[in-house]
Design brief:
The protein is mainly α. About 75% of the residues lie in helices and about 0% in strands. Helix 1 runs antiparallel to helix 2. The termini are far apart.
């Protein structure tokens, strides 16, 4: 086995001095919003199954989704869906070899947060 000198290896950035970049935050948020949309799609399926089964079941889930808490959940789901969609579009742009430099990638990450918020507000106002 090779003689490994562990004292000469470079150390990873310490957690207290590491500053997350916009690209890493936006990438992590794309994964989180993907999981959130997948999880919240259960509510849509539940609503559709309840509509197909009985009026009492439909009234129950429809009442929940139309409550203030249901509205809050659906608002968050709308934002997550827009954000995840914009993240996927960003990856398509990267796949074609465009906007790969760090400065443009950071602006795209910030634009995703702003764009998802604006599109969510527009969706709420239109619907």
């Amino acid at each position: 086995m090779a003689d490994v000198n562990r004292g000469d290896r470079p150390l990873s950035p310490h957690i207290m001095i590491y500053r997350p970049q916009m690209t890493s935050i936006s990438s992590i948020m794309v994964r989180i919003t993907g999981l959130a949309v997948l999880t919240l799609s259960v509510l849509v399926v539940w609503w559709l199954i309840a509509a197909a089964t009985s009026e009492a079941a439909f009234t129950s889930i429809d009442g929940f989704l139309r409550s203030w808490f249901g509205d809050l959940i659906l608002l968050g789901a709308t934002w997550a869906l827009w954000y995840h969609t914009m993240g996927r579009l960003r990856h398509v742009i990267w796949d074609f070899g465009y906007c790969l430099d760090v400065e443009t990638s950071e602006r795209m990450g910030l634009g995703m947060f702003i764009g998802a918020t604006v599109l969510t507000i527009l969706t709420v106002l239109v619907l």
